[in-house]
């Protein structure tokens, strides 16, 4: 098994990869931006093995990307929410979305500035307002130009326009 650190690399990218570079990790963070907060909702939407999800969530909590707190609606269960450090990953995720859109397959979602409705450009900026909104000021919705690949409860909740970080309630 490969190690999880890059001790001999004197580079901030290496330090960041120690936190978010493992398989599944950025998809978990992506879903957290989409408002997914419960273990079972991550599990259902990502089709990730249960043990791996548990390991990745614990690591993201330990590294200060996610906060784990008791779920007031379900005794003995937890909610996972992005910390300020986790929310700072939005430009990274948006850049990866833009890269994948250009060099792989077009993205199935669009991201707009909530204040004016303008679609964000590849850099995450709003051309109308001439600013780069934070994730709390971004709406996302399906482009609707292709069939959905998933039909789980989270995918259905995400099919409607919604503000990033707003909790998915299923």
Task: Tell me the layout of helices and strands.
Blueprint: H1 12-20, H2 25-33, H3 39-46, H4 50-62, E1 66-70, E2 78-82, H5 84-87, H6 90-103, E3 109-113, E4 138-142, H7 153-158, E5 162-163
Antiparallel strand pairs: 1-2, 3-4, 4-5
Structural class: alpha+beta
- Molecular shape: globular
Number of strands: 5
Mean pLDDT: 92
The poorly predicted ranges are none
**What's the N-to-C terminus distance?**
37 Å
Describe the main β-sheet briefly. Answer: 3 strands, antiparallel
Q: What pattern of helices and strands is seen along the backbone?
A: HHHHEEHHEEHE
Rounded to the nearest angstrom, the radius of gyration is 16 Å
CATH class of the largest domain: Mainly Alpha
CATH architecture of the largest domain: Orthogonal Bundle
Summarize the structure.
Helix content is 37%, strand content 13%.
Keywords:
170 residues, alpha+beta, Arc Repressor Mutant, subunit A, 3-stranded antiparallel sheet
Fold and architecture overview:
With 170 residues, the protein is an alpha+beta fold. The protein folds into two domains: 12-86, Arc Repressor Mutant, subunit A; 90-163, no CATH class. The protein is built from seven helices and five strands, in the order ααααββααββαβ. The mean pLDDT is 92.
